[in-house]
Amino acid sequence: MRPSPFAAVLVLGTFLAIPAHAADKVKGFYAGSGGMSAADHRTLFIEFGADGSAILQQKWHDKDPQTWHARWKKTRSSITLTYEPAKDAAPTPEPLVFSFKHGALVPTSWDSPTLGIKPPTLTPFGGRNPQAGSVSQCQSLNTLDPTRDCVTWGTHQ
């Protein structure tokens, strides 16, 4: 019995859809840097937890790192991070929205006072890069070795 052309198209479509779906999977850790001069150069790191928690850490040239906690949600090819209110009564930044393009996170909407004129495109760290269960207890990211857990409130690294 010869397979129908419809069955062949269905099987081919299934194989082609698998890599596209895998490319849209949110990895655990992303990083990027940008800026045309030393004054506006910075590095941005984001770790996504499987429970919807996220931690962002930004380091501007010659300044202390800034750290924010957020919640993330993926809809189609868009990821939205909504900042959690800061404990020090600082204003909560506007949500950060990324478009998912070829596995990278491209900023499409952000809070300019917080992240500058144009945040960098973020790419996942290579190889196996799974999401942690949660990053809600993180004080800061382990930027020296992102394959290790974040620095929590109880650790002194």
3D architecture notes:
With about 160 residues, the chain is an alpha+beta fold. The chain contains 2 helices and 10 strands, in the order αβββββββαβββ. The protein has helices spanning about 5-25, 110-115; strands spanning about 30-35, 40-50, 55-60, 65-75, 80-85, 95-100, 105-110, 125, 140, 150. It has an 8-stranded antiparallel sheet with strand order 7-6-5-4-3-2-1-8, with no helix packed on it. It has a two-stranded antiparallel sheet with strand order 9-10. The longest helix has 19 residues, at about 5-25. It is globular and about 35 Å long. It starts with a helix and ends in a 5-residue tail after the last strand.
Short summary:
This protein is an alpha+beta fold and 157 residues long. Helix content is 15%, strand content 36%.
Give keywords.
157 residues, alpha+beta, Lipocalin, eight-stranded antiparallel β-sheet, two-stranded antiparallel ribbon, 10 strands, 36% strand
Strand portion:
35-45%
Order of helices and strands: HEEEEEEEHEEE
Q: Which blocks of ≥5 consecutive residues have pLDDT under 50?
A: 5-23
Q: Report the structural category.
A: alpha+beta
Which outline best applies? globular
Terminal Cα separation, in Å? Answer: 66 Å
Could you give a short account of the major beta sheet? 8 strands, antiparallel
